[in-house]
């Protein structure tokens, strides 16, 4: 069960902003989401990337318009989940399960394409989002307007699933698909309820560490997240512990993929047909 990652949008930033001790070189960050095809669950989506619900449309709130201007994602035309799924031979209706690693805009923007999927996510975080004002959510980088209105009935709480030990001493993870192949690994700090995904059965176990770090170089060099990542983190100290845990997993022989690293990975759909 090898995951495939697609790039929904490019974000141009200076390396200095995303890597402690980086230089002023401009990077074109990716915004990944994934698809994994399970023998019984079928195609499972991992987050849903950026989409036009963030960058277009008059109905957006002023805050969302400002966020889109500030982050400046350039949507990849062939990188939308429906296009990518079609390329892989599936319709959006075939996706019965979406794993949502956290509720930031660049992970939830495509959810509206999948009105019938169950969403595996952190229920406590979702309930907190529902209970807060728009302004309070804004401080967490969350826009309720991007979340489907019936999400409350479709969420499966990851916290309620069985614990399974992940390989390479990564620790326990929640068994998302019931067979130990895909484990949700608690990686707190970046956002409330943020978790990574361990593909435990691969010959070289893979950890999709999502937004623990912006670029893989920070994991490889074991540089801890600093300014300005700490500004957006909900818990900077927890984020450092999570970054260490990911670095240790890699040092023990595991593979690591991040949401935003600019380099192509062996798990990415080829850029030529995805750009
Ligand atoms: Zn995030």
UniProtKB/TrEMBL annotation:
Keyword terms of this UniProt record: Hydrolase, Metal-binding, Zinc
SUPFAM superfamilies: Metallo-hydrolase/oxidoreductase
Pfam families: Lactamase_B
Domain of life: Bacteria
Upper classification of the organism: Bacteria, Pseudomonadati, Pseudomonadota, Alphaproteobacteria, Rhodobacterales
GO MF, any single term: hydrolase activity
InterPro entries (alphabetical): MBL_superfamily_lactonases, Metallo-B-lactamas, RibonucZ/Hydroxyglut_hydro
Required co-factors: Zn(2+)
Name by which UniProt lists this protein: MBL fold metallo-hydrolase
Residue ranges annotated for the Metallo-beta-lactamase domain, each copy included: 31-260
Family: Belongs to the metallo-beta-lactamase superfamily.
């Amino acid at each position: 069960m090898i995951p495939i990652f697609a790039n929904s949008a490019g974000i141009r930033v200076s390396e200095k902003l995303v890597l402690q001790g980086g230089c002023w070189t401009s990077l074109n960050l990716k915004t990944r989401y994934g698809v994994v095809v399970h023998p019984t669950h079928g195609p499972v989506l991992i987050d849903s990337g950026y989409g036009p619900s963030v960058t277009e449309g008059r109905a957006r709130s002023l805050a969302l318009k400002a966020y889109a201007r500030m982050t400046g994602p350039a949507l990849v035309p062939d990188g939308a989940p429906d296009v990518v799924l079609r390329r892989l031979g599936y319709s959006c209706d075939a996706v019965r399960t979406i794993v949502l690693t956290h509720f930031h805009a660049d992970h939830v923007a495509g959810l509206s394409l999948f009105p019938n999927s169950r969403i595996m996510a952190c229920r406590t975080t979702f309930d907190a989002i529902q209970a807060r004002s728009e302004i309070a959510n804004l401080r967490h980088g969350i826009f309720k307007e991007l979340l489907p209105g019936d999400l409350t009935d479709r969420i499966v709480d990851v916290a309620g699933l069985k614990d399974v030990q992940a390989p390479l001493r990564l620790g326990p993870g929640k068994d998302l698909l019931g067979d130990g192949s895909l484990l949700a690994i608690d990686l707190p700090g970046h956002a409330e309820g943020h978790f990574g995904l361990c593909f435990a059965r691969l010959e070289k176990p893979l950890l999709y560490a999502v937004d623990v770090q912006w670029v893989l170089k920070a994991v490889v060099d074991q540089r801890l997240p600093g300014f300005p990542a700490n500004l957006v983190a909900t818990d900077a100290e927890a984020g450092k512990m999570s970054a260490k845990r990911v670095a240790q997993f890699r040092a023990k022989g595991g593979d690591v993929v991040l949401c935003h690293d600019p380099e192509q990975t062996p798990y990415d759909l080829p850029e030529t047909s995805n750009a």
